[in-house]
Amino acid sequence: MRDVLDLLVTLGVHAVATGPSGREYLRTHLHIDGDTHVHGFLTDVGFPYHTRKRREAHRLGTRLDHRIERLRAEPVSDPPEPVLRDPGLPDRQGTYLRRRGLLPIALDDHKIPLLARVLGYALGDGSLHEIDGQLRLTFAGEPEGLRDLADDLATLGVGTGLRRWDTKDMVELHVHSRAFARYLELLGMPRSPKVERVYGVPGWILRAPPGVKAEFLAGLFGADGWLTGSDGRYAIGLTQAKSAVYLGSLHLFMTEIGEMLEEVAGCRWGLNRERCYTTEDGKVRVTERLFICGREDVMRFLSDVGFAYSRAKAERTERALKALGGSVRGIRLKYREK
What we know:
Layout: E1 7-18, E2 24-35, E3 67-68, E4 74-75, E5 82-84, H1 91-99, E6 105-106, H2 112-125, E7 126-131, E8 134-141, H3 143-155, E9 160-164, E10 171-175, H4 178-187, H5 203-206, H6 210-224, E11 225-230, E12 233-243, H7 247-265, E13 270-278, E14 284-292, H8 295-304, H9 311-324
Antiparallel strand pairs: 1-2, 2-3, 2-4, 5-6, 7-8, 8-10, 9-10, 11-12, 12-14, 13-14
Helix pairs in contact: 1-4, 2-6, 6-7, 8-9
GO molecular function, one term: endonuclease activity
Organism: Methanopyrus kandleri
GO biological process, one term: intein-mediated protein splicing
């Protein structure tokens, strides 16, 4: 169904009926509003409950703004899985998050794709650290890319400030809210230094719809991914490092990323244990690299995932797709308050 309806749709409820077996059925209609990224069904109230079953459209028009009148009735799914209910935060932090609609939050919430993208970038170029007993959240990156990130955080009601480094064409984005720093930690971001932490892809991301996973991957690759090549031959990669004692955690994380890429974009991928090295303070590090190099696989990644919060990588993506004869299938999801 996703292959047929790669569209932005509005979900309407006709009726709830009870079948002969006693099971409840939900009758719906979908109104197609326009072309969008291959992210399942994104509606004006978020992602509907996802099931593995495929709906059958009995009548599907070839033009946009066409109403699908007759969909096979589908059993009502269980309520959406909560991502965070009430984590027992201090009153001021809890109030701050509830006022912005961030608590409680479930997988079908329309802010979830945006949060997944921010969390993906945070796992790459984010830093969560404690200073004077206060949890601080910062991001590093390109000036233009971090301005995009700041805009997305502002959409969630989170204030930020940019600080430019003197020696590099890079900036830091400082998040003012301690509550949001703690919130991102609850969503799965480890504290710094990440190379000394055991963590994997957050469980709620692994259970999320493919579109949410695509946003998470776009954020992660926007931070730590790379695209190289020319003349129609390109490769994409993601390199991560850990202390040698946490090699198992690193391998699990990279394997989960590869499996998500396969699910979301159908990409074939491989892993290389790149090298071991010793830091100046005598600590042993090991790096592992995930790579995508097949022509069709590169095109699928660039079309269906891409690089978030990096203007330079976005420009290289456009050039690569032009050389490969592909095209971006849709714009990045962007939650906006109506």
